[in-house]
Amino acid sequence: MFVLRLLSVSTCLWCTLLPVTIWAEDTAPFHLLSQAAARQWGGWSGSRSTLSRLFQEERRRLGGQFEEELLEYVGTNIVKHYWCASYLMDATNDAEPDPKLALLILQQGISIGAARKEDQIARRYLVALYVKAAILCARMGLLYQAGTWKASVTGMVEKEPDLRGWWPACSSVDRKVFDEIPPMPRTDRVPTGEAGEEQ
User: Fold this and answer.
1) Taking the CB of residue 34, how many other CB atoms lie within 10 A of it?
2) What is the 3-class SS of 74-125, one letter each residue?
3) Angstrom distance (rounded) from CA 189 to CA 63
4) What's the mean pLDDT in 19-23?
5) Which residues of 13-29 are buried (b: 16+ CB within 10 A; e: fewer)?
6) How many other C-beta atoms can be found within 10 angstroms of the C-beta atom of residue 170?
7) Residues 105, 85 contacting (CB under 8 angstroms)
8) N or C, which end of the chain has less CB nearby within 10 Å?
9) CA nearest 123: which of 89, 152, 87?
């Protein structure tokens, strides 16, 4: 009788846990990340540690499907482009940085922002995207592209000083990297496509 009761309890526990396991496996990619960003104070600009952790956990869960799912997830949302690229740029939560994917996402975000110049939110994030892209390209040795991004953001904040408030927080190391990027001629063209190329 005791053995039967033990088996019954074990079966009930297994049945209770099974739906949770199935739900976790079937959760839409980045659902928990979006949920956390929507619920926390400050949204995407709130607790970076929480969102970064969830992002890297999803990166591990998706494995080989990660890049495809991420590009679909960010879509045309410039805010997601900025933050997801930021999480890819730095090694956090035991995850290695992925500069190539980060640069691709930054380039897409810049193209989106440049096409929405009348949108004040897009213009604000465009400043942050330019700075991040310039720093990342400089780290990767792509100095021409880094200089182009630097010239673009410098021109923006000179024309619209209020945008300086949207300059992203940078470590002293990254600030030094940005400051040491060689100056480039000002241009209104937005580099797209592969790193180091313009279209």
Assistant:
1) 16
2) HCCCHHHHHHHHHHHHCCCCCCCCCHHHHHHHHHHHHHHHHCCCCCHHHHHH
3) 36
4) 38
5) eeeeeeeeeeeeeeeeb
6) 14
7) yes
8) N
9) 152
Nearest to residue 154, comparing CAs of 177, 185, 176? 185
DSSP state of 49: H
Please name the amino acid found at residue 88: L
φ/ψ (deg, to 5) at 192: -135, 180
Which domains are present in the chain?
A: 75-179 (1.25.40)
Confidence at 31, pLDDT banded by 50, 70, 90: very high
Residues 163-187 pLDDT 10s:
988 899 889 999 999 999 998 755 5
